[in-house]
Amino acid sequence: MDKRELTLRLLRLTGALEPAKGTDRDELRTTRELLAGALAKGRAHTAPDTDNLPPLAVADDVHDELGRLAALVAEDDSEEDGPPLHVVRRDLPFASGGGGVATLADLVAGGRRADRVLGPFIDLNGQPLVFDVFTSQQHVTIVRDPGGEPLLRVPVRAFQRRDAENYMLGAGSVWIRSTLLAPNAPPNGWTGLRILGGTVRGSAGGVFDGTVVRFPAGTKVELEIELDRSAPPLDGGAPGVAPDAAAAQVMVPATMQLATAPGQATQIALKEAALELFDVTYRMAYTRQAPVWESTVARILVPFDAEPDVLAIGEAKSKIFRAQGKEKLTFAGWVLPVTTAAVTSLGEADGAGGIGLACDAGMDAQWRGLRGGAVDVDGLFVIAEPGRLMMIGRGVHGASARQRFELWQEHQPSARRARFDMKYHRPGTVRFLAERDTREVLWLEGESDAVLDRPLDAAGRHLHLTAGPAMCVLELRTTLRALGQARFDGSSRALALRNALLTVAAPWLVTWNGELNGDRIDAGELRLLSRLERLWPTLPDPYASTMTPLTGKRIDDNPSHFTPTTGLAGLADGLARQWLVAATVTWAKPDDVTLELKLSKTATAEPVRPVRPGPTDPPVVTPPVIPGGAIGLVRPDV
């Protein structure tokens, strides 16, 4: 990866980040350094849409810092000091994954224990995110020759040869090729399990060279392990949060036996399992049914018989989400994570899986702020791991189900507040995560309406946005915060400013966030990003008559200035340089509201400088310039 591409990736992934409370700029600098090294070597993993969203231009000092960092990394061909590092950007516990729950982060990080977590940081939309760092470990690989795919991987430090047929596994982790467990699992997937010990046996002797055990082609390979059922460490920091996760008792099978032979289905033997959840105790016995990969939860499902055979949820204790009802189980059993990360990044496993329960229609759900009564849930999947509880509801809908978030106080004399409404009348998905003494997170999807008095249009009318696909997230730690995102279609709008008249497309992205108090956000931030269609300066003659109206289309390839003859720059590589109008509303109190509008180029690998006249052009009066390539646009009413 060359300097230019590396700079662009760093800009998109970290350019707009700010340290969250408890995190400092040194940690952000460290994150950028580690990420740059991982990107350069192809060991960084991010959501697939990260590179498609056009971030706003960043301040010059940030751009210059990332450019210098990219140059250092791109030119560095020295050997790495220490084991290779892999970096995963984790935006939210759940993100939109094409209608399913599984995301790239689930598949990359799934089942791996991060050696270091950097952050949290806050992105441009007020959304928290972290970077997980994984350290490569040297493994012993178990294969069948000639040319067979790896079957197992075990850290070298936990591997010991007894003789040609038998090998001992110490406490730590074992990684199993996921297709051995479920043939429909991702072909490059691996399932990691924490173990207390175990053995690997071959029906014929193998050859061990220190890093690889090679069994003959027709060898039957057997794995026997004792699972480590203890709870993994969690962040903590919010005592008493997630009481349902804290009360759950999860007992995955104590032992596992696996046998694989060429041309035969994998044979699996498991001890019993148990789960105590929502004051119900489930006792489970292995059925010997074939495990299957379930993409919507990014896990392998190993069926068990459960007693009782119904999912019963009575009085849940969560403060933000409660499902309730009683319905016959469609699945009960052991659930195992899968990672598609590079095999060189497989370090320590995060646990030994969890217990899953699922049912079809019959449940309903309620959550903090929901109006119109409980919603119907067409299907519910519950996954309990030690210290952690996840619930995924599909087909969630209610004819009158809605939710209102009241934002800032409108202009006097109005007593109303600006608002953002969520509607849940169409079937959607609800996702809930609870981590003991750490957090509860609820992810909701639906449609949204918004009524905003900032910014007003050119006629002084409120901004009415309707029927946009949206999501909102409630996160409870020591306080309850809410954030939302929505996209809208609609006609263009004109905005009249003191120094310009501009038309913009309907907002392609609206985001907001803040601390939630009942239905109100008394302090927060809202951003609207719209594509600029046209801009006319409204400056006194002779200046206004000498300026070419600014449009969002490419005019030339010179990024240095804006003049009557040359207009604005195009994107590098001949692409049209898109201009965005970013309206940011910030309120420290309901009646203490500020509005800032910026005209900004999207981030490129070249510095985006403030618009200035060319050296030989006549004087041009431009709007006030804000560092970082954004033109400040001033409204008369704020």
Can you put this structure into words, describing what you see?
The protein is mainly beta. The protein contains six helices and 41 strands. The strands form three sheets. The protein has a 25-stranded antiparallel beta sheet that branches. Strands 6, 7, 8, 9, 10, 11, 12, 13, 14, 16 and 17 form an eleven-stranded mixed beta sheet that branches. The chain has a five-stranded mixed beta sheet with strand order 1-4-5-3-2. Strand 20 (292-294) and strand 21 (299-307) form a beta hairpin. Helix 2 crosses helix 3. It is globular, with a radius of gyration of 28 Å. The two termini are 46 Å apart. The model is unreliable at 94-105, 552-577 and 603-638 (pLDDT under 50).
List the helices and strands and how they pair.
Elements: H1 3-14, E1 18-19, H2 25-40, E2 44-45, H3 60-75, E3 85-90, H4 104-109, E4 116-122, E5 128-135, E6 139-144, E7 152-155, E8 159-161, E9 166-169, E10 172-177, H5 178-181, E11 190-202, E12 207-208, E13 212-215, E14 221-227, H6 243-247, E15 249-251, E16 255-260, E17 267-270, E18 273-277, E19 280-286, E20 292-294, E21 299-307, E22 310-313, E23 321-337, E24 354-367, E25 375-385, E26 388-396, E27 402-409, E28 417-423, E29 428-435, E30 439-452, E31 463-476, E32 480-486, E33 493-496, E34 500-504, E35 509-517, E36 520-537, E37 550-551, E38 579-589, E39 592-601, E40 625-626, E41 630-633
Parallel strand pairs: 2-3, 6-13
Antiparallel strand pairs: 1-4, 3-5, 4-5, 6-7, 7-10, 8-9, 9-11, 10-11, 11-14, 12-13, 14-16, 15-18, 16-17, 18-19, 19-21, 20-21, 21-23, 22-23, 23-24, 24-25, 25-26, 26-29, 27-28, 28-30, 29-30, 30-31, 31-32, 32-35, 33-34, 34-36, 35-36, 36-37, 36-38, 38-39, 39-41, 40-41
